[in-house]
């Protein structure tokens, strides 16, 4: 396309944008415009207030100057309803369209009349919710000092936020946190936003923009009785703005800087631009479009902490520690995690690992981008029946972690949704398409850089020969001899910063086969690969129906849903499992289908003069790979006669079917094959009943070395027999659904003339068949239940083992419990101070021989305190949030270690320019630039400082 033609098209598009309000205004057709202004009790303009003509769908939302306009044709007189969080709802009589309304609202408690939907899948007052639920409305989201509205979720009571990077945050509640969280469901307008084959919700990478978010609801704790398979630890729902209610053109621009590390490098810029356009072209038809672009430099993961310190790896050689540790396994260096036993000419045995590569050398500049677009068409068939179609697409870069660190590059996820919402029912159907683009796994990337330079066997031989030569030259200086041996074995390896390294790195990133020939079935593959190429579709349909018109003695809600996943085999991560074993890891084959169907019925009834509400529900889910499961829930809420105090209690049972990766994976990664837990995958491999725990095999090698080093006359074979009891048989079983039983009690109240809001909840959970991974070693020949000398020989050296990471279940009962307390206090009309304290702890029955120890990965204590005033002076507001969390122990297959305690302060100041429909927000996240990390292997996070400008011009409402 020529530059001239491109310029004409761009000019034409902008002309359409500018003319749309004019064209819409021309469609009034005799309707009138009702206009006015909403102010607070200090006379300050109140943006975001909802103004509606009672009994109709005509409404508007006030702009940044507090003004509103409603286009309607309702007969006069009429009643105007005004609602805004933090103020008493009010009604006003309007006699004619000439009235210029000047309305003043009176401050009240923040949450007295707030309505939520997610707790029971129907509207109810937050104070009377049968389970714990948290909510952030559009005003709270605008006032957050966090780096984005999405980060504000992490300040809610009971919520633990894990930051994998700028583009990727994961939330969890009530323990068992992981960066790829299978147990916490994240919805956007009811649509599950998980990336199916990655097995993780993509945070807000394909979610709403800053301009289109209306509210967020979070249900801590088990929600599977109503929401099904993935809501075992809770769920969140991001609710966007309806184009009938929120019309106008909005622009958002944020400029931020991070990486103030004080080490001479300059801070790195972050930019985020968003655009929203929404218009009701008539009383029946409205549309909206949103676009967002963000780019910046992500947080670095560069920890030099050692999983395998020298005192553990080679306890007989105190000089082999620190920089001289021959088996160093640094947190963020990869291909160094596996050790080889090397015996020198003097009969001394050492554990040695390959050198490996640092993450920063594999990743490069850590630049990331996130592009999002969504559009929606809404049509009101009748005033109480609305149909809509929504398309959403996101393209993202970033980083996340499961058993390895993953570099996400050009990941694309798309959603198509159709929805029909009536007065008593909702039906929606959607599909999600996932393509991981140019993503890569850092462990095989580093591993294949090493192996494409020199095989493990050759490197091991070169190291041993150089070690013996160095010992002749250096005598008793073992550390110096090992340094010389490593330098000799590494001579000629791919060196970071060179053109040859960059070329080999790019080559390996582009190959979707993590093995090297002859293990790989591709004879041309001499370098191995690291590409994470996964493609999937999932299809979902669900509906709910309130039977209030047909059942009058109680409130009855019924619902059903169907979901199926379609996985396209890539021959690496997901394979056609119907192929013979020796051909499984080849491209193509039959698609994998994994589906489930479920339904529920919920009934609620009021007793004791409507002060006691009892709700009971029963859900049934059936997966194609597992038998059907029932999930019941019973809850009661008692409200005192003065409506101030609300006590609640609930019990529910829930199941979680294994995710795609937990069920079907079959990928070789660094000599360890990750396998799904379904029984048929294991046929011919033997990892369920003929394996040792890999941790015990490593301990066995160390024990044998220690014995032969202490007694040179002792043969290795005899030392193996003496230490055979160190080996622990894994004795695993095929995977089955995870189960939870959850008890919860709570209390909500508004006190002291609606100035104080109190919210307390406590829980006790019992998990059975907890799902996790166990790494095992299978001898190439022999039986671990009757180990011969041949089996022991194989367990001494991993070259003669087949290693697997198996998804399976814990055999012991896992329990956890905790509580959370939240208090909000409004004083001097517009000042607010609030805080929450959260306690969680784990109790596991360890009397059984259990190979799987679940990682609780949650601090016992964490807390948030905020202080702010939305109108401390005319058009000026501020907010400050302090977060603190206790230290805790992190445990998963990437590695175990301590996460230190830390605290941060976020702050922002917002100044409004009502006449310009503009607000300016200046603030920072972690303003004191504290350095901290949230999980082992994760990035180090520091301060981020920003300026954000929002322009919001509302249109006349139809």
Helices and strands, with pairings:
Layout: H1 3-25, E1 32-39, E2 50-53, E3 59-61, E4 67-72, E5 78-83, E6 90-94, E7 100-104, E8 115-116, E9 124-125, E10 134-137, H2 138-143, E11 159-165, E12 168-173, E13 184-188, E14 191-192, E15 194-195, E16 200-201, E17 213-220, H3 224-227, E18 234-240, E19 248-258, E20 268-280, E21 285-297, H4 310-313, E22 333-334, E23 339-343, E24 349-353, E25 357-358, H5 359-363, E26 367-382, E27 385-401, E28 405-421, E29 425-435, E30 440-441, H6 442-453, H7 456-474, H8 478-489, H9 499-509, E31 535-546, E32 555-568, E33 592-607, E34 612-623, E35 626-639, E36 645-656, H10 660-664, E37 666-669, E38 672-675, E39 692-693, H11 694-710, H12 716-722, E40 738-751, E41 756-768, E42 771-779, H13 789-796, E43 801-809, E44 814-827, E45 831-844, E46 861-873, E47 876-885, E48 888-890, E49 897-899, E50 902-913, E51 918-925, E52 944-954
Parallel strand pairs: 1-7, 13-18, 38-43
Antiparallel strand pairs: 1-4, 2-3, 2-5, 5-6, 8-9, 10-17, 11-12, 13-14, 15-16, 17-18, 19-20, 19-52, 20-21, 21-26, 22-25, 23-24, 26-27, 27-28, 28-29, 28-30, 29-31, 31-32, 32-33, 33-34, 34-35, 35-36, 36-40, 37-38, 39-42, 40-41, 41-44, 42-43, 44-45, 45-46, 46-47, 47-50, 48-49, 50-51, 51-52
């Amino acid at each position: 396309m020529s530059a001239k033609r491109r310029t004409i098209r761009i000019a034409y598009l902008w002309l359409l944008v500018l003319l749309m309000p004019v064209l819409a205004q021309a469609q009034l057709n005799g309707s009138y415009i009702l206009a006015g202004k909403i102010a607070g009790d200090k006379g300050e303009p109140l943006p975001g207030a909802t103004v509606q003509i009672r009994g109709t769908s005509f409404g508007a939302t006030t702009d940044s100057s507090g003004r509103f306009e409603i286009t309607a044709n309702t007969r006069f007189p009429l009643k105007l309803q005004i609602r805004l969080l933090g103020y008493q709802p009010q009604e006003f009589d309007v006699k004619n369209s000439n009235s210029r309304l000047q309305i003043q609202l009176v401050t009240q408690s923040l949450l007295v009349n707030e309505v939520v939907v997610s707790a029971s899948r129907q509207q109810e007052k937050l104070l009377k919710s049968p389970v714990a639920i948290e909510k952030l409305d559009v005003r709270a989201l605008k006032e957050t000092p966090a780096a984005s509205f999405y980060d504000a979720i992490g300040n809610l009571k009971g919520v633990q936020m894990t930051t994998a990077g700028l583009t990727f945050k994961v939330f969890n509640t009530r323990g068992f946190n992981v960066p790829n969280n299978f147990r916490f469901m994240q919805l956007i307008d009811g649509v599950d936003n998980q990336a199916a084959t990655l097995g993780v919700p993509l945070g807000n990478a394909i979610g709403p923009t800053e301009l289109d978010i209306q509210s967020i609801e979070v249900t801590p704790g088990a929600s599977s009785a109503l929401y099904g398979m993935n809501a075992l630890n809770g769920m969140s729902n991001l609710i966007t703005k309806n184009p009938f209610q929120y019309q106008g053109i909005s622009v958002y621009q944020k400029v931020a800087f991070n990486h103030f590390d004080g080490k001479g490098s300059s801070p790195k810029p972050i930019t985020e631009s968003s655009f929203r356009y929404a218009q009701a072209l008539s009383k029946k038809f409205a549309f909206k479009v949103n676009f967002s672009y963000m780019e910046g430099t992500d947080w670095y993961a560069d920890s030099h902490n050692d999983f395998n310190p020298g005192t553990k790896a080679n306890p007989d050689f105190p000089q082999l520690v620190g920089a001289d540790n021959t088996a160093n396994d640094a947190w963020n260096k990869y291909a160094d995690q596996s050790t080889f036993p090397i015996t020198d000419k003097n009969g001394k045995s050492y554990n040695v690992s390959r050198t490996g590569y640092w993450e920063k050398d594999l990743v490069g500049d850590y630049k990331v981008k996130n592009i999002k677009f969504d559009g929606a068409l809404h049509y009101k068939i009748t005033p109480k029946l609305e149909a809509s179609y929504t398309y959403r697409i996101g393209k993202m870069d970033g980083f996340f972690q499961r058993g390895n660190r993953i570099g996400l590059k050009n990941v694309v996820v798309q959603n198509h949704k159709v929805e029909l919402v009536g007065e008593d029912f909702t039906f929606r159907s959607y599909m999600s398409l996932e393509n991981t683009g140019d993503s890569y796994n850092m462990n095989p990337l580093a591993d294949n850089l090493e192996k494409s330079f020199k095989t493990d066997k050759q490197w091991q031989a070169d190291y041993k020969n150089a070690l013996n030569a160095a010992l002749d030259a250096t005598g008793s200086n073992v550390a110096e001899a090992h340094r010389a041996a490593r330098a000799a074995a590494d001579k000629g390896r791919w060196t970071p910063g060179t053109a040859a390294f960059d070329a080999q790195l790019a080559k390996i990133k582009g190959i979707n086969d993590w093995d090297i020939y002859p293990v790989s079935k591709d004879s041309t593959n001499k370098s191995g690969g690291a590409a994470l190429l996964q493609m999937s579709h999932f299809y979902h349909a669900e509906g709910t129906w309130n039977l209030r018109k047909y059942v009058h003695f109680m409130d009855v809600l019924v619902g059903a849903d169907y979901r199926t996943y379609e996985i396209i085999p890539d021959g690496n991560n997901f394979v056609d499992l119907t192929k013979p074993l020796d051909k499984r890891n080849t491209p193509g084959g039959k698609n994998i289908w994994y589906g489930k169907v479920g339904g529920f019925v919920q009934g609620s009834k009021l007793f004791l003069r409507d002060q006691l509400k009892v709700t009971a529900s029963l859900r049934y889910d059936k997966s194609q790979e597992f038998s059907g499961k029932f999930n019941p829930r019973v809850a009661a809420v008692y409200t005192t006669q003065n409506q101030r105090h609300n006590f609640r209690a609930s019990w529910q049972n829930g199941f979680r079917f294994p995710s795609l990766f937990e069920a079907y994976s079959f990928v070789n990664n660094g000599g360890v094959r990750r396998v799904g837990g379904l029984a048929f995958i294991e046929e011919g491999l033997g990892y369920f009943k003929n394996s040792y725990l890999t941790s015990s095999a490593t301990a066995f090698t160390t024990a044998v070395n220690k014995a032969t080093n202490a007694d040179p006359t002792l043969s290795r074979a005899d030392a193996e027999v003496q230490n055979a009891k160190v080996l622990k048989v894994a004795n695993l079983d095929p995977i089955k659904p995870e189960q939870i039983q959850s008890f919860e009690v709570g209390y909500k109240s508004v006190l002291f003339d609606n100035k104080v809001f109190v919210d307390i909840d406590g829980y006790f959970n019992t998990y059975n068949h907890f799902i996790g991974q166990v790494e095992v070693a299978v001898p190439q020949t022999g039986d671990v239940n009757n180990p011969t000398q041949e089996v022991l020989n194989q367990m001494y050296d991993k070259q003669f083992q087949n290693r697997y990471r198996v998804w399976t279940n814990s055999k012991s009962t896992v329990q956890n419990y905790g509580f959370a307390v939240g208090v909000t206090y409004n004083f001097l009309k517009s000042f607010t101070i609030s805080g929450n304290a959260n306690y969680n702890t784990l109790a596991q029955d360890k009397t059984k021989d259990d190979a799987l120890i679940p990682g609780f990965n949650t601090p016992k204590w964490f807390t948030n305190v905020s202080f702010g005033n939305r109108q401390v002076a005319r058009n000026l507001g501020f907010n400050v949030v302090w977060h603190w969390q206790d230290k805790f122990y992190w445990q998963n297959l990437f590695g175990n270690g301590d996460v230190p305690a830390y605290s941060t302060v976020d702050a922002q100041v917002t100044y409004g320019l009502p006449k310009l429909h503009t607000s300016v927000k200046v603030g920072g996240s972690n303003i004191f630039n504290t350095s901290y990390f949230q999980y082992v292997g994760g990035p180090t996070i520091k301060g981020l400082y920003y300026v954000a400008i929002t322009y919001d011009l509302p249109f006349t409402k139809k």
